[in-house]
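Researcher: I need the complex structure. Ligand is 2'-deoxyguanosine-5'-triphosphate. Inputs:
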Amino acid sequence: MLRLSNDDVARLFEEIADLLEIDDASPFRVRAYRTAASTLRGLGREARDMVAAGEPLTDLPGIGKDLAGKITEALSTGRIDALETLHRDVPPSLEALLRIPGLGPKRVRALYQQLGVENLDDLRAAAAAGRVRSLHGFGKKTEQRVLDQLAAQREKKHRIPRHEATPQARDLERRLRDIPGVEQVVIAGSFRRGRDTVGDLDVLVTAASTDLVMARFTGLPAVLEVTARGTTRASVLLRSGLQVDLRLVPPESFGAALHYFTGSKAHNVRVRRLGQQHGLKVNEYGVFRGGERVAGDTEESVFSAVGLPFITPELREDQGEIEAAQQNRLPRLIERGDLRGDLHAHTTASDGRASLRAMAEAARAAGLEYLAITDHAADQGGPRPMDARRLREQGEAIDRLNEELHGITLLKGVEVDIREDGSLVLPETVLARLDVVIASVHNATSLPRRQQTERLMRAMDHPSVTLLGHPGGRFRPEREGYAVDMERVLRHARECGCFVELDSQPRRLDLNETYCRLARERGVLVAIDSDSHDRRDFANLDGGVLHARRGWLEAVDVLNTRPLHELRRLLRRTH
Ligand code: DGT
Ligand code: ZN
Ligand code: CA
Ligand code: CA
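Model: Output:
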C-alpha cells in the first residue's frame, strides 16, 4: 500500500535540499525545502488526510503552489520527479559522501570543488594526506573523525534488496554472454539461493579467452571502481553500490565451482564433511579421490558423489536439507505456475492506480484465474476508505464485470484495518457479505510484544476474517517487523481456521521464511499475494514464490493454488 506519512515526504524534501545544496543551487530554494520539511514534521496531522478532505495544502505556512504540488505528487506516486532528476545530475558517489556522519552538503561541496573529492576513496586519500584539515570549516578534529568513520563503514556490511540487484544481475549476465568466446554465465551466491537481500553478486564464467572476459568485465559502463583483478578473478564496485565478484572457471570444474560459490557456507561445510566420510575431497575445483577427479563438471555429479540427490539452491542453508535429502524427503517446492489466483489487490477505489477492469485484465494476463479485490477500509489515513455503501457499489461493478469478462473471476473483498484493541474498522454484518476479508495492521506498529500478539489473535477471531495480512509487519528498510509472538499467532490461526498471508511486495515479503516453514508444519495454509496497486505489480508474485520456496512451501501448503470451486469451499470458514 502507498500511504506516505508526513515524515516520509519530509525525508524526500530533505534529500532534495541536500542535493540542491551540493549542486550549488540558490540558498533560497534550498531553504524552502528545508522549511517545508520541518513544517510537515511538526504538522500534527497527516497531509494525506488534508488532501483526502479536499483542504488546500497551500494553507500551510511556507507551502506555496509548487511545494504543494510536490507533496501531492509524493503522496500519490511515492516519488518526486525533481528528486529523480537531481539524482541523475549529482554524481552518486557524492551522495555516498553525504551518508558519512559529520559531512553535510556544504562540506561535501567544498570537498568536491576545492579538493576534487568525488568518492570515498578520494576522501580517504585526501584525509590521510592531511589535506582536508586545511579547508575552510574543517580542521584537524573533523579530519580525524572522517577517517574513523570511513574505517567503521568498511566494517559494516551493506546489503542490497534483491529487487534492486535483479535488474543489474540480468544486465550483467546479458553483457557477459555477449563477449566472444564466453560459454556459460551463472550468478551464484546468495542471489542464486533466492535470498531477499544480497551482500554481493558472485558470477561464474566459462570462456575460451580469459583476458578478453577480464578486460570487458572491468570495462563495463556500470563499473565505478575495480577493486581487485587477477587472471581468473576480478572484483568491481558498480555505480549503484553493488559489489560483483567474477570468477573464470574451466569447464570440467564448472559444477564444483557452481556448487561451492552458490553456498551457503554452512551447506558447503556439511557437503565437504559428507565427502570426507566417503573418502573424498570436495572443493571448488571438483571432487577428488586421492589425486583423481571423480566428479565436478555438473552440480548433480557433486551431490551424487557424496550420496545425495540434487538439492535446489533455495534450500542450501543447512537448515535440514541434507537430512531431508538423505531420507528422500525433500519438499516438492511450489512454482509460480502453481498459483491460480491472487487474494490481495487494490484499485483506484482506494490507493491503487488502476481500475477494476484494468486490474482484472492484468491478473488474467499474469496467468491467474481469480483475483480478490481488497481495497482499504481504515479509520483514518489513505484516500477514501471503503465503507458499507462503497463496498456494495463495488460489489455490483464486480458482478457486472464477471458477467462480461472471460478467463478471470473477480472476488469481492476488503483489506480491513485492525485497530489497536484488535477490533476491526468495519462491522461483521458488512464483512460477512464478502468473499475475502484480509485483516491487516497499518498503525500502532510499536506495541509491546504481548499486546501486539493478542491484537492479531483477536482480529482473527472475527468469523468473517479469512486472512491475516502481512502478519509480521516487515516494511523495509524502515522496519524489520513488529514485536510479536508468531508461534502463538500461527497456533491461533490453526485453531480458528484463519489463513495467513505471504505479502509479495519486495518491501514486505511477510510472512518471513522461518514462519512460512512453521505455518506449513502447523498446517496453516499460506496465501501468496501480490498486494498489487498497479497492473505491473502482479510480477511481485515471482518474488513471493521464491520466498515461499526458501520457506520450504509446497503447492499444497498454499491457499491460492486451489481451483476456484475448492477455494470457495475453503473460504466458507466455520468456527
Ligand atoms: P552474501 O554475498 O553475503 O549475500 O552471501 P553469499 O552466500 O553470496 O556469500 P559470499 O558472497 O561471501 O560467498 C559466496 C559463496 O562462496 C558462499 O555462499 C559460499 C562460498 N564461500 C565463500 N567463502 C567460503 C568459505 O570460507 N568456505 C566455504 N565452504 N565456502 C565459502
Ligand atoms: Zn494491501
Ligand atoms: Ca554473494
Ligand atoms: Ca562474494
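Model: Summary of the prediction. Residues 6-156 form a domain with the DNA polymerase; domain 1 fold (CATH 1.10.150.110).
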